[in-house]
Amino acid sequence: MDLGLQGKWALVCAASKGLGKGCAAALAAEGVNVVITARGAEALEATADELRRLAPGVQVRTVVGDITTEAGRAAALEAAPQVDILVNNAGGPPPGDFRQWEREQWIAALDANMLTPIALIRATVDGMAQRGFGRIVNITSAAVKAPIDTLGLSNGARSGLTGFVAGLARQPRLAGRNVTVNNLLPGPFDTDRLRKTVEAAAQAQGRPLESVWDQRRLGVPAQRYGRPEEFGAACAFLCSVHAGYITGQNWLLDGGLYPGTF
User: Fold this and answer.
1) In the predicted model, is pLDDT for residue 95 greater than 90?
2) Which of 38, 135, 37, 46 lies closest to 82 in space, CA to CA?
3) pLDDT at residue 262 is higher than 90
4) What is the distance between the alpha carbons of residues 10 and 32, in angstroms, rounded to a whole number?
5) pTM above 0.85, yes or no
6) 3-class DSSP string for the chain
């Protein structure tokens, strides 16, 4: 299927690894020029080299910086001649007990997982509407659908973004101008972040890493972890010309882990 994205420009945040990288690769394979951001220069440049080999005809630009800062956002936006596709992504805040969190921890979570995506949407959405095409995809979390008690910071910040998007996406001046805003909710995907989480759990439980890793994997009805490239494929479709009638939605990608009907 031709996704109709040849020559578009995308800004993909936190794209040096994991799900962000999967999204950037899927878009580049469809002929999308990409600006990718991350804080680590070495991993970011390695990913850029991979994308250039994958899609020799596209432009791949890198911006090293913290997307949660005004300076980081300004640099990322400046690197693209225009942003037709915005993929918001940032690492989740640490787990813990809410009794341990002070205002500083809450503000940091809100900055990374709610206010930064909103700031980037604000900076790009009107241009999308003027051009008559725009796709915004926010990578949030399956915890928005089924909250996890130890991830209170993430639950709160990402749910705030979800509520904001629900209203924004339905504005006729956006939806009526072929601009869509959707959220992708990943469950357990085989990423560095998941491995670090499982490593911490294994240490806390005094169990072998592989034992905890396999136990979690077998708890997924699909009997496996998700792959970043299949997450990227879902993102690319949401960004395509074929998805213009999909907006304000929360797509859950979790291998069937969420047990509800709705």
Assistant:
1) no
2) 135
3) no
4) 7
5) yes
6) CCCCCCCCEEEECCCCCHHHHHHHHHHHHCCCEEEEEECCHHHHHHHHHHHHHHCCCCCEEEEECCCCCHHHHHHHHHCCCCCCEEEECCCCCCCCCHHHCCHHHHHHHHHHHHHHHHHHHHHHHHHHHHHCCEEEEEECCHHHCCCCHHHHHHHHHHHHHHHHHHHHCCCHHHHCCCEEEEEEEECCECCHHHHHHHHHHHHHHCCCHHHHHHHHHHCCCCCCCECHHHHHHHHHHHHCHHHCCCCCCEEEECCCCCCCCC
Return the pLDDT at 83.
98
Work out the average pLDDT over 100-104: 94
- Mean pLDDT (the chain) is 95
pLDDT at 168: 98
- Residues 106-113 have a mean pLDDT of 95
pLDDT of residue 161: 97
Instruction: Show the tokens assigned to 59.
Output: 């432009």
CA-CA distance, 84 to 133, in Å (whole number)? 7
Structure tokens, 3: 């996704």
